[in-house]
Amino acid sequence: MTNDSPESLLAGLDDQQRVAAEAVLGPVCILAGAGTGKTRAITHRIAYGVASGVYAPSRVMALTFTAKAATELRSRLRMLGAPNVAARTFHAAALSQLSYFWPQVVGGNMPKIVESKGRLLGHAAEMIRVPVTTGSLREFAAEVEWRKVSRLGIEQYAKALESRPVPGNLSVDQAVALQQAYEDIKDERRLIDFEDILLATAGMIEAEPRVALQVREQYRFFVVDEYQDVSPLQYELLQAWLGDRRDLCVVGDASQTVYSFAGATATYLLEFEQKYTDAQVVRLEQNYRSTTEIIQTANALMRGRAGSLELRPAAARVTEPSAAVVRAAYPSDVLEARAVAQAIKATIDSGVQPKQIAVLYRINVQSAVLETALADLGVPVQLSGSTRFFDHPEVRQAVMALRAASVSIVGEPLFKSVSDVLRSLGWSQHPPETAGAVRDRWELLNALMGLVDLVPAGTTFRDFTDDLLQRQAAHHAPDLSAVTLATLHSAKGMEWDTVFLVGLSEGLLPISYATTRPQQDEERRLLYVGITRAKRALQLSYAESSAGRREVRRPSRFLAELDIRTPDGRRPDAS
Length: 575
Hints:
Elements: H1 15-22, E1 28-32, H2 38-51, E2 60-64, H3 67-79, E3 86-89, H4 90-105, E4 112-113, H5 117-128, H6 134-149, H7 154-160, H8 172-188, E5 191-192, H9 194-207, H10 209-218, E6 221-224, H11 232-242, E7 248-252, H12 267-270, H13 272-275, E8 280-284, E9 286-287, H14 292-302, E10 312-313, H15 315-318, E11 325-330, H16 333-349, E12 357-361, H17 367-376, E13 381-384, H18 393-408, H19 414-424, H20 437-450, H21 461-474, E14 483-487, H22 488-491, E15 496-501, H23 517-531, E16 534-543
Parallel strand pairs: 1-7, 1-8, 2-3, 2-6, 4-5, 6-7, 9-10, 11-16, 12-14, 12-15, 13-14, 15-16
Helix pairs in contact: 1-2, 4-9, 5-6, 5-8, 7-8, 9-10, 9-11, 14-23, 16-17, 18-19, 18-21
């Protein structure tokens, strides 16, 4: 679908979207709140620039963070009559340039890309005789990525470990040695990893004037989506692409910065006006997604925070009938999951499509009791951005160990039989103090322990393991129309009519290892992302206890800031 004139591209935009779309030159910062139509604004801006003759399509680069988002941008631009604009991830754009220039600048073929950091780190650990596990290798692979996107050399990384947890239960010296060994073995085998792609591209542009000239001649106008998620390394590459030019449009929302642990920082978004004192700043605050009650809840959570926007419901949403935002508490995780599953079943029976419903939570293992409770009611589910509970290697191992034990153990209380086996695999009543592979394994085993509460009284150990095996076998791909189960991180960029936010207790949200103020602020932003995924109905809930643990959970500190009533209309703290 193309347009007859540049002006027609602006016809369907609201006032602020139109201001953004018409700001086609110079530094532009679009502060776009959740559900305010930021993708619509930036695609119409690019299409308007092309249609009005300001941009040559081949000289525009739209950058984002996922292949899915890049595909969406290309699709929309094609519909708006700008099919030749490049819309890519940072990595895809850099890899294309590096592949082209490497033979000219370095000579020969570009090195191969590392297929698995974990495997290479395993070889490096063996070489320097550092003890590692499969879980700690995954953890350390993420640490390598954090170091490199944060632009830290090995010595700087050693300094950072003075105030940063050392992954994988290694000593500081072992962690530093493993980082160095990883780089050494990579160089010996003539390999590069994904972070090296960005590093090498930026370095080549900065060191080779002819490369810089050619790259900057190719791309003159830049648009960067989700600018709050830019890392120092991506920022460095962007500056190399720009050179001394100023035609940069950035789009972001500081309240949705939820990847700081991976090196993302909202600093570049928040300081954009300081870097470009003449920048045009446009605020998109009219929310087209959510009802008034949901927007009020989101605003209350973020009010007064750095870079926060005050969302306003679009006129059409103000009068639209909707369910209330409600808060609920349940005695246990199991009862919370069952109540949520029953509410979802009733919602589906009322005519809502399963694909318009989501349950969001902080960590992957919280899906275990939800998957089971929904399956028991015949509700199809799909997991977004994570592995199904019974597909985790740790869970598979535990199920087999339980099955083997159930052959010989008879007559004991079920809780004792299961807990004894899981203790032998690393479970305990109290979680490890820090994040990482050990904590992840404990969470999986603890979730498996929680399934004991789902079976009827009098269930034998053998019956319990039979049930586990049946559930494991039944977890095939769901129907196309299914309820989504997702972590708050993987829910970013998505939306549903009805959203259930579960597990909103201290220790889960904020997570127990979020001990510093910046970490706790990030937990707040995660909840904000979850709230703003809902279009019509939202329930926030927590459980007062979990499997195998006696202490009572307290509701999340964030809930105390929100004026949300219980389903019967009472305020939770009212007598």
